[in-house]
Amino acid sequence: MSGEPRAWLASLKEMGMQPGLERTATLLARLKMPQQNFPSVHVAGSNGKGSCCAILANAFTLTGTCTGLFSSPHLCSENERVRVDGVPISDELFDDCLSKIIQVSSQSPKTTPTYYEATFLVAMLAFSSLGVERAIIETGLGGRLDATRLVDADCTILTELALEHTEYLGNTLAEIAGEKVAIVRQGRPFIASWTYDAEARSVIESAVRDHNNAWWWRADRSVAIRFAESNQPFRPLPPVVDFDGWIPYKKEAAMLARTAAMAMNEYSVYEAIELAVNHTHWPGRMQWLDYEGVPILLDAAHNPSGMARTCEQIRLQKSRDESPMPGAILIGCTQQNEMHDFLHPLAEMIVDGRIEHIFVTQPSQGRRAPVDSNELAEAIAEHGLQINLRTVEDSKDAFIEAHNQILKLDSSTPVPLLCIGSLYLIGDILKIVKEDSLDAMNTLIPIQGEDGTDPIA
After folding, report:
1. Is 239's pLDDT higher than 60?
2. Which of 6, 43, 312, 433 is a Cys-bridge partner for 291, taking CB atoms 3.0 to 4.6 Å apart?
3. pLDDT tier for residue 94 given thresholds of 50, 70 and 90
4. Domain 3-281 in CATH: superfamily?
5. What is the pLDDT of residue 243?
6. Which pTM does this prediction carry?
7. Would you say domain 287-440 falls under CATH 3.30.420.40?
Protein backbone atom coordinates (compact mmCIF):
# COMPACT_ATOMS: atom_id res chain seq x y z
CA MET A 1 0.00 0.00 0.00
CA SER A 2 1.52 3.28 -1.10
CA GLY A 3 1.98 5.80 1.69
CA GLU A 4 1.60 9.13 -0.09
CA PRO A 5 -1.88 8.73 -1.68
CA ARG A 6 -3.33 7.15 1.47
CA ALA A 7 -1.78 9.84 3.66
CA TRP A 8 -3.43 12.46 1.45
CA LEU A 9 -6.75 10.61 1.72
CA ALA A 10 -6.47 10.41 5.51
CA SER A 11 -5.77 14.14 5.69
CA LEU A 12 -9.16 14.82 4.10
CA LYS A 13 -10.92 13.57 7.21
CA GLU A 14 -10.16 16.94 8.79
CA MET A 15 -12.68 18.53 6.41
CA GLY A 16 -15.48 16.54 8.02
CA MET A 17 -18.82 16.29 6.23
CA GLN A 18 -19.50 19.05 3.71
CA PRO A 19 -22.60 18.11 1.70
CA GLY A 20 -22.62 19.53 -1.82
CA LEU A 21 -22.10 18.57 -5.45
CA GLU A 22 -19.86 21.32 -6.81
CA ARG A 23 -16.48 19.88 -5.72
CA THR A 24 -17.20 16.42 -7.06
CA ALA A 25 -18.73 17.73 -10.29
CA THR A 26 -15.62 19.82 -10.93
CA LEU A 27 -13.27 16.90 -10.33
CA LEU A 28 -15.34 14.48 -12.42
CA ALA A 29 -15.12 16.92 -15.32
CA ARG A 30 -11.33 17.12 -14.94
CA LEU A 31 -11.21 13.30 -14.87
CA LYS A 32 -13.18 13.16 -18.18
CA MET A 33 -16.49 12.07 -16.64
CA PRO A 34 -15.75 8.40 -15.84
CA GLN A 35 -19.21 7.96 -14.26
CA GLN A 36 -20.81 8.23 -17.71
CA ASN A 37 -19.07 5.10 -19.00
CA PHE A 38 -21.62 2.78 -17.35
CA PRO A 39 -25.25 2.95 -16.17
CA SER A 40 -25.95 2.89 -12.44
CA VAL A 41 -28.69 1.93 -10.04
CA HIS A 42 -28.71 4.56 -7.29
CA VAL A 43 -29.92 3.53 -3.81
CA ALA A 44 -30.75 5.72 -0.81
CA GLY A 45 -32.47 5.07 2.51
CA SER A 46 -31.87 4.80 6.24
CA ASN A 47 -31.77 1.03 6.73
CA GLY A 48 -31.16 -1.91 4.44
CA LYS A 49 -29.67 -0.02 1.51
CA GLY A 50 -26.31 -1.77 1.77
CA SER A 51 -27.93 -5.20 1.69
CA CYS A 52 -30.12 -4.19 -1.23
CA CYS A 53 -27.08 -2.94 -3.15
CA ALA A 54 -25.04 -6.08 -2.45
CA ILE A 55 -27.82 -8.44 -3.51
CA LEU A 56 -28.63 -6.50 -6.68
CA ALA A 57 -24.95 -6.19 -7.61
CA ASN A 58 -24.43 -9.92 -7.14
CA ALA A 59 -27.51 -10.72 -9.22
CA PHE A 60 -26.08 -8.71 -12.10
CA THR A 61 -22.70 -10.42 -11.72
CA LEU A 62 -24.30 -13.87 -11.67
CA THR A 63 -25.94 -13.13 -15.04
CA GLY A 64 -22.58 -12.34 -16.62
CA THR A 65 -22.53 -8.56 -16.22
CA CYS A 66 -19.30 -6.98 -14.94
CA THR A 67 -20.71 -5.07 -11.98
CA GLY A 68 -19.24 -2.41 -9.70
CA LEU A 69 -20.51 -1.73 -6.18
CA PHE A 70 -19.79 1.49 -4.30
CA SER A 71 -20.74 1.50 -0.61
CA SER A 72 -19.78 3.27 2.59
CA PRO A 73 -18.53 3.40 5.23
CA HIS A 74 -15.99 0.59 5.31
CA LEU A 75 -15.24 -1.86 8.09
CA CYS A 76 -11.48 -2.36 7.86
CA SER A 77 -10.08 -0.96 4.60
CA GLU A 78 -11.08 1.81 2.19
CA ASN A 79 -10.83 -0.75 -0.63
CA GLU A 80 -14.11 -2.27 0.61
CA ARG A 81 -15.96 0.79 -0.68
CA VAL A 82 -15.05 -0.12 -4.27
CA ARG A 83 -15.88 -3.67 -5.36
CA VAL A 84 -16.06 -5.26 -8.79
CA ASP A 85 -18.02 -8.52 -9.03
CA GLY A 86 -18.02 -8.67 -5.25
CA VAL A 87 -14.26 -8.27 -4.80
CA PRO A 88 -12.64 -5.13 -3.31
CA ILE A 89 -10.21 -3.53 -5.74
CA SER A 90 -6.47 -3.95 -5.18
CA ASP A 91 -4.28 -1.55 -3.24
CA GLU A 92 -2.42 -0.77 -6.45
CA LEU A 93 -5.54 0.27 -8.36
CA PHE A 94 -6.96 2.19 -5.42
CA ASP A 95 -3.73 4.15 -4.99
CA ASP A 96 -3.38 4.74 -8.73
CA CYS A 97 -6.88 6.25 -8.81
CA LEU A 98 -6.07 8.37 -5.77
CA SER A 99 -2.96 9.68 -7.50
CA LYS A 100 -5.04 10.83 -10.47
CA ILE A 101 -7.47 12.58 -8.11
CA ILE A 102 -4.61 14.32 -6.30
CA GLN A 103 -3.31 15.56 -9.64
CA VAL A 104 -6.58 17.05 -10.86
CA SER A 105 -7.48 18.49 -7.45
CA SER A 106 -4.32 20.62 -7.57
CA GLN A 107 -5.27 22.21 -10.88
CA SER A 108 -6.36 25.84 -10.79
CA PRO A 109 -8.62 26.63 -9.13
CA LYS A 110 -7.58 24.13 -6.46
CA THR A 111 -10.51 21.86 -5.58
CA THR A 112 -10.13 19.56 -2.60
CA PRO A 113 -12.73 16.82 -2.10
CA THR A 114 -13.89 15.49 1.24
CA TYR A 115 -12.74 12.03 2.32
CA TYR A 116 -16.04 10.50 1.22
CA GLU A 117 -16.02 12.31 -2.12
CA ALA A 118 -12.47 11.11 -2.80
CA THR A 119 -13.46 7.47 -2.27
CA PHE A 120 -16.44 7.96 -4.59
CA LEU A 121 -14.15 9.39 -7.25
CA VAL A 122 -11.85 6.37 -6.83
CA ALA A 123 -14.84 4.13 -7.50
CA MET A 124 -15.78 5.99 -10.67
CA LEU A 125 -12.22 5.82 -12.02
CA ALA A 126 -11.77 2.17 -11.05
CA PHE A 127 -15.09 1.10 -12.58
CA SER A 128 -14.28 2.91 -15.80
CA SER A 129 -10.77 1.46 -16.06
CA LEU A 130 -11.94 -2.11 -15.37
CA GLY A 131 -14.68 -2.01 -17.97
CA VAL A 132 -17.61 -2.20 -15.54
CA GLU A 133 -20.87 -2.61 -17.45
CA ARG A 134 -23.23 -1.78 -14.57
CA ALA A 135 -22.73 -0.06 -11.23
CA ILE A 136 -24.78 -0.22 -8.04
CA ILE A 137 -24.26 2.96 -6.04
CA GLU A 138 -25.15 3.45 -2.37
CA THR A 139 -25.61 7.00 -1.13
CA GLY A 140 -23.58 8.15 1.84
CA LEU A 141 -25.73 10.76 3.59
CA GLY A 142 -29.18 11.79 2.42
CA GLY A 143 -29.27 12.07 -1.34
CA ARG A 144 -29.93 15.60 -2.53
CA LEU A 145 -26.42 16.85 -1.78
CA ASP A 146 -24.62 13.51 -1.87
CA ALA A 147 -21.80 13.16 -4.41
CA THR A 148 -23.30 9.90 -5.71
CA ARG A 149 -26.18 11.88 -7.19
CA LEU A 150 -23.86 12.69 -10.10
CA VAL A 151 -23.91 9.12 -11.48
CA ASP A 152 -25.86 8.26 -14.63
CA ALA A 153 -28.71 6.31 -12.98
CA ASP A 154 -31.35 4.49 -15.00
CA CYS A 155 -33.14 3.26 -11.85
CA THR A 156 -33.37 4.53 -8.27
CA ILE A 157 -34.37 2.78 -5.04
CA LEU A 158 -35.38 4.19 -1.64
CA THR A 159 -35.18 1.72 1.26
CA GLU A 160 -36.71 2.06 4.73
CA LEU A 161 -36.73 5.53 6.26
CA ALA A 162 -35.78 6.33 9.85
CA LEU A 163 -34.97 9.37 11.93
CA GLU A 164 -31.19 9.62 11.45
CA HIS A 165 -28.60 12.35 11.00
CA THR A 166 -31.31 14.86 11.90
CA GLU A 167 -28.74 17.62 12.21
CA TYR A 168 -28.23 17.35 8.45
CA LEU A 169 -31.43 15.83 7.05
CA GLY A 170 -34.27 17.25 9.14
CA ASN A 171 -36.23 16.44 12.27
CA THR A 172 -39.16 14.56 10.72
CA LEU A 173 -39.51 11.58 8.42
CA ALA A 174 -41.05 13.89 5.84
CA GLU A 175 -38.01 16.18 5.86
CA ILE A 176 -35.65 13.21 5.65
CA ALA A 177 -37.75 11.74 2.83
CA GLY A 178 -37.39 15.01 0.92
CA GLU A 179 -33.60 14.80 1.11
CA LYS A 180 -33.41 11.14 0.10
CA VAL A 181 -36.04 11.09 -2.65
CA ALA A 182 -34.03 13.76 -4.48
CA ILE A 183 -32.09 10.89 -6.08
CA VAL A 184 -35.11 10.24 -8.36
CA ARG A 185 -34.32 10.49 -12.09
CA GLN A 186 -37.50 11.63 -13.78
CA GLY A 187 -38.71 9.28 -16.50
CA ARG A 188 -36.77 6.33 -15.09
CA PRO A 189 -38.01 3.58 -12.74
CA PHE A 190 -38.20 4.36 -9.03
CA ILE A 191 -38.93 1.86 -6.23
CA ALA A 192 -39.57 2.87 -2.62
CA SER A 193 -40.11 0.87 0.54
CA TRP A 194 -43.56 1.70 1.89
CA THR A 195 -43.72 4.01 4.89
CA TYR A 196 -46.73 4.37 7.16
CA ASP A 197 -45.89 8.05 7.69
CA ALA A 198 -48.51 9.76 5.50
CA GLU A 199 -46.60 13.04 5.26
CA ALA A 200 -43.41 11.25 4.19
CA ARG A 201 -45.40 9.26 1.59
CA SER A 202 -46.83 12.49 0.21
CA VAL A 203 -43.37 14.02 -0.08
CA ILE A 204 -42.06 10.96 -1.93
CA GLU A 205 -45.00 10.70 -4.31
CA SER A 206 -44.89 14.44 -5.03
CA ALA A 207 -41.24 14.15 -6.08
CA VAL A 208 -42.07 11.71 -8.90
CA ARG A 209 -43.80 13.00 -12.01
CA ASP A 210 -44.71 9.71 -13.68
CA HIS A 211 -46.65 7.64 -11.15
CA ASN A 212 -46.90 4.76 -13.60
CA ASN A 213 -43.12 4.37 -13.49
CA ALA A 214 -42.79 4.31 -9.71
CA TRP A 215 -43.64 1.53 -7.26
CA TRP A 216 -44.18 1.15 -3.53
CA TRP A 217 -42.80 -2.12 -2.19
CA ARG A 218 -45.20 -3.16 0.58
CA ALA A 219 -43.69 -5.84 2.79
CA ASP A 220 -46.99 -6.13 4.66
CA ARG A 221 -48.65 -7.31 1.44
CA SER A 222 -45.63 -8.85 -0.31
CA VAL A 223 -46.43 -6.85 -3.40
CA ALA A 224 -45.22 -3.85 -5.39
CA ILE A 225 -47.93 -1.27 -6.13
CA ARG A 226 -47.57 1.51 -8.68
CA PHE A 227 -47.83 4.99 -7.23
CA ALA A 228 -50.72 5.55 -9.65
CA GLU A 229 -52.67 2.76 -7.94
CA SER A 230 -51.53 3.14 -4.34
CA ASN A 231 -54.53 5.19 -3.23
CA GLN A 232 -57.29 3.17 -4.85
CA PRO A 233 -59.75 2.46 -2.03
CA PHE A 234 -60.77 -1.14 -2.72
CA ARG A 235 -57.72 -2.70 -4.33
CA PRO A 236 -57.56 -6.45 -3.62
CA LEU A 237 -55.02 -7.77 -1.16
CA PRO A 238 -52.88 -10.72 -2.25
CA PRO A 239 -52.78 -13.72 0.05
CA VAL A 240 -49.86 -13.44 2.46
CA VAL A 241 -48.58 -16.63 4.02
CA ASP A 242 -46.97 -16.62 7.46
CA PHE A 243 -46.66 -12.83 7.62
CA ASP A 244 -46.66 -11.61 11.22
CA GLY A 245 -45.99 -7.92 10.62
CA TRP A 246 -42.22 -8.26 10.50
CA ILE A 247 -39.75 -9.05 7.73
CA PRO A 248 -35.96 -9.48 7.90
CA TYR A 249 -33.86 -6.81 6.21
CA LYS A 250 -32.30 -9.32 3.85
CA LYS A 251 -35.67 -10.50 2.57
CA GLU A 252 -36.98 -6.97 2.14
CA ALA A 253 -33.74 -5.93 0.45
CA ALA A 254 -34.11 -8.84 -1.96
CA MET A 255 -37.67 -7.90 -2.79
CA LEU A 256 -36.68 -4.29 -3.50
CA ALA A 257 -33.87 -5.56 -5.73
CA ARG A 258 -36.25 -7.92 -7.54
CA THR A 259 -38.81 -5.16 -8.09
CA ALA A 260 -36.08 -2.91 -9.49
CA ALA A 261 -34.89 -5.64 -11.88
CA MET A 262 -38.43 -6.15 -13.15
CA ALA A 263 -38.98 -2.40 -13.58
CA MET A 264 -35.75 -2.21 -15.61
CA ASN A 265 -36.81 -5.17 -17.77
CA GLU A 266 -33.75 -7.05 -16.56
CA TYR A 267 -35.52 -10.40 -16.45
CA SER A 268 -32.42 -12.57 -16.10
CA VAL A 269 -31.37 -10.45 -13.11
CA TYR A 270 -34.89 -10.80 -11.70
CA GLU A 271 -34.57 -14.59 -11.92
CA ALA A 272 -31.11 -14.49 -10.31
CA ILE A 273 -32.15 -12.60 -7.16
CA GLU A 274 -32.82 -15.73 -5.08
CA LEU A 275 -29.46 -17.20 -6.07
CA ALA A 276 -27.82 -13.86 -5.25
CA VAL A 277 -29.41 -13.81 -1.79
CA ASN A 278 -27.94 -17.22 -1.00
CA HIS A 279 -24.53 -16.20 -2.32
CA THR A 280 -24.32 -12.73 -0.75
CA HIS A 281 -21.94 -12.23 2.15
CA TRP A 282 -22.45 -8.74 3.59
CA PRO A 283 -19.78 -8.35 6.30
CA GLY A 284 -20.89 -6.90 9.60
CA ARG A 285 -24.62 -7.36 8.99
CA MET A 286 -26.03 -10.34 10.91
CA GLN A 287 -22.69 -12.02 10.24
CA TRP A 288 -21.89 -15.30 11.99
CA LEU A 289 -18.34 -16.47 12.55
CA ASP A 290 -16.49 -18.75 14.94
CA TYR A 291 -13.60 -17.60 17.10
CA GLU A 292 -11.77 -20.13 19.24
CA GLY A 293 -14.85 -22.30 19.63
CA VAL A 294 -17.31 -19.47 20.36
CA PRO A 295 -20.01 -18.52 17.84
CA ILE A 296 -19.90 -14.77 17.25
CA LEU A 297 -22.79 -12.74 15.82
CA LEU A 298 -21.88 -9.30 14.45
CA ASP A 299 -24.37 -6.61 13.50
CA ALA A 300 -23.93 -2.90 12.86
CA ALA A 301 -27.26 -1.68 14.20
CA HIS A 302 -26.58 2.05 14.03
CA ASN A 303 -29.97 3.64 14.76
CA PRO A 304 -33.14 2.81 16.76
CA SER A 305 -35.01 1.15 13.89
CA GLY A 306 -31.93 -0.86 12.94
CA MET A 307 -31.52 -2.02 16.53
CA ALA A 308 -35.20 -2.99 16.67
CA ARG A 309 -34.93 -5.03 13.46
CA THR A 310 -31.81 -6.87 14.64
CA CYS A 311 -33.17 -7.71 18.09
CA GLU A 312 -36.46 -8.89 16.61
CA GLN A 313 -34.63 -11.13 14.15
CA ILE A 314 -32.55 -12.68 16.94
CA ARG A 315 -35.69 -13.36 18.98
CA LEU A 316 -37.47 -14.81 15.94
CA GLN A 317 -34.54 -17.12 15.17
CA LYS A 318 -34.58 -18.30 18.77
CA SER A 319 -38.34 -18.98 18.64
CA ARG A 320 -37.82 -21.07 15.49
CA ASP A 321 -34.85 -22.94 17.00
CA GLU A 322 -32.62 -21.56 14.25
CA SER A 323 -30.05 -20.20 16.73
CA PRO A 324 -29.82 -19.86 20.52
CA MET A 325 -30.15 -16.60 22.39
CA PRO A 326 -26.80 -14.87 23.00
CA GLY A 327 -25.17 -15.59 26.34
CA ALA A 328 -23.45 -12.21 26.47
CA ILE A 329 -23.56 -8.91 24.59
CA LEU A 330 -20.73 -6.56 23.65
CA ILE A 331 -21.98 -3.11 22.69
CA GLY A 332 -20.39 0.16 21.62
CA CYS A 333 -21.95 2.90 19.56
CA THR A 334 -21.64 6.39 18.15
CA GLN A 335 -23.73 9.35 19.32
CA GLN A 336 -27.49 8.82 19.18
CA ASN A 337 -30.12 11.55 19.12
CA GLU A 338 -32.50 9.28 21.01
CA MET A 339 -30.40 6.97 23.15
CA HIS A 340 -33.41 5.57 25.02
CA ASP A 341 -35.13 4.60 21.78
CA PHE A 342 -31.88 3.05 20.54
CA LEU A 343 -31.40 0.89 23.64
CA HIS A 344 -35.05 -0.04 24.28
CA PRO A 345 -35.21 -2.99 21.80
CA LEU A 346 -31.95 -4.34 23.22
CA ALA A 347 -33.30 -4.09 26.76
CA GLU A 348 -36.43 -6.01 25.74
CA MET A 349 -34.34 -8.75 24.17
CA ILE A 350 -32.13 -8.95 27.28
CA VAL A 351 -35.20 -9.48 29.46
CA ASP A 352 -36.86 -11.89 27.04
CA GLY A 353 -33.67 -13.90 26.53
CA ARG A 354 -32.57 -13.74 30.18
CA ILE A 355 -29.18 -12.43 29.12
CA GLU A 356 -27.13 -11.58 32.20
CA HIS A 357 -23.75 -10.35 30.92
CA ILE A 358 -23.36 -7.04 29.10
CA PHE A 359 -19.98 -5.58 28.18
CA VAL A 360 -19.85 -1.91 27.21
CA THR A 361 -16.96 -0.49 25.21
CA GLN A 362 -15.95 2.28 22.82
CA PRO A 363 -15.41 1.63 19.12
CA SER A 364 -12.50 3.13 17.24
CA GLN A 365 -12.86 6.74 16.23
CA GLY A 366 -14.64 7.06 12.91
CA ARG A 367 -16.67 9.70 11.12
CA ARG A 368 -18.85 10.10 14.19
CA ALA A 369 -17.53 10.25 17.75
CA PRO A 370 -18.12 7.17 19.91
CA VAL A 371 -20.25 7.37 23.02
CA ASP A 372 -18.13 7.23 26.16
CA SER A 373 -18.36 3.70 27.55
CA ASN A 374 -19.29 4.94 31.04
CA GLU A 375 -22.01 7.16 29.58
CA LEU A 376 -23.40 4.26 27.56
CA ALA A 377 -23.30 1.95 30.58
CA GLU A 378 -25.28 4.51 32.59
CA ALA A 379 -27.89 4.72 29.82
CA ILE A 380 -28.25 0.92 29.82
CA ALA A 381 -28.51 0.85 33.62
CA GLU A 382 -31.43 3.31 33.45
CA HIS A 383 -33.54 0.52 31.94
CA GLY A 384 -33.53 -1.25 35.31
CA LEU A 385 -32.18 -4.56 34.06
CA GLN A 386 -31.01 -7.34 36.36
CA ILE A 387 -27.67 -7.84 34.64
CA ASN A 388 -23.94 -7.95 35.19
CA LEU A 389 -22.87 -4.73 33.48
CA ARG A 390 -19.16 -4.26 32.87
CA THR A 391 -17.42 -1.28 31.27
CA VAL A 392 -14.21 -1.94 29.33
CA GLU A 393 -13.06 1.08 27.35
CA ASP A 394 -10.69 -0.71 24.97
CA SER A 395 -12.69 -2.74 22.43
CA LYS A 396 -10.09 -5.51 22.16
CA ASP A 397 -9.96 -6.02 25.93
CA ALA A 398 -13.76 -5.92 26.04
CA PHE A 399 -14.05 -8.58 23.34
CA ILE A 400 -11.59 -10.88 25.11
CA GLU A 401 -13.47 -10.55 28.41
CA ALA A 402 -16.83 -11.17 26.73
CA HIS A 403 -15.41 -14.17 24.85
CA ASN A 404 -14.06 -15.62 28.11
CA GLN A 405 -17.42 -15.07 29.79
CA ILE A 406 -19.14 -17.19 27.14
CA LEU A 407 -16.70 -20.04 27.82
CA LYS A 408 -17.37 -19.73 31.56
CA LEU A 409 -21.09 -20.15 30.92
CA ASP A 410 -20.61 -23.38 28.92
CA SER A 411 -17.25 -24.40 27.48
CA SER A 412 -18.57 -27.62 25.94
CA THR A 413 -21.38 -26.06 23.89
CA PRO A 414 -20.83 -22.28 23.96
CA VAL A 415 -23.77 -20.02 23.23
CA PRO A 416 -23.29 -17.01 20.93
CA LEU A 417 -21.62 -13.73 21.79
CA LEU A 418 -23.50 -10.81 20.21
CA CYS A 419 -21.35 -7.83 19.18
CA ILE A 420 -23.61 -4.96 18.22
CA GLY A 421 -23.65 -1.22 17.66
CA SER A 422 -21.35 0.96 15.63
CA LEU A 423 -19.91 -0.17 12.31
CA TYR A 424 -16.58 0.92 13.76
CA LEU A 425 -17.00 -1.58 16.60
CA ILE A 426 -17.70 -4.35 14.10
CA GLY A 427 -14.56 -3.34 12.21
CA ASP A 428 -12.59 -3.56 15.45
CA ILE A 429 -13.89 -7.08 16.11
CA LEU A 430 -13.12 -8.29 12.58
CA LYS A 431 -9.54 -7.11 13.00
CA ILE A 432 -9.25 -8.84 16.38
CA VAL A 433 -10.43 -12.18 14.98
CA LYS A 434 -8.34 -11.72 11.82
CA GLU A 435 -11.29 -11.62 9.45
CA ASP A 436 -10.28 -8.25 8.02
CA SER A 437 -8.40 -9.25 4.85
CA LEU A 438 -9.66 -8.09 1.46
CA ASP A 439 -10.60 -11.70 0.66
CA ALA A 440 -12.76 -11.79 3.80
CA MET A 441 -14.58 -8.70 2.51
CA ASN A 442 -15.76 -10.32 -0.72
CA THR A 443 -19.52 -9.93 -0.95
CA LEU A 444 -20.09 -12.69 -3.51
CA ILE A 445 -19.68 -16.32 -2.48
CA PRO A 446 -18.52 -18.18 -5.61
CA ILE A 447 -20.99 -20.54 -7.24
CA GLN A 448 -18.31 -23.22 -7.41
CA GLY A 449 -16.10 -24.17 -4.49
CA GLU A 450 -12.72 -25.84 -4.67
CA ASP A 451 -14.37 -29.20 -5.32
CA GLY A 452 -16.40 -27.81 -8.22
CA THR A 453 -19.73 -27.84 -6.39
CA ASP A 454 -21.85 -24.98 -5.09
CA PRO A 455 -20.86 -24.47 -1.40
CA ILE A 456 -24.34 -23.12 -0.62
CA ALA A 457 -26.29 -25.96 -2.23
Report:
1. no
2. 433
3. very high
4. Mur-like, catalytic domain (3.40.1190.10)
5. 40
6. 0.91
7. no
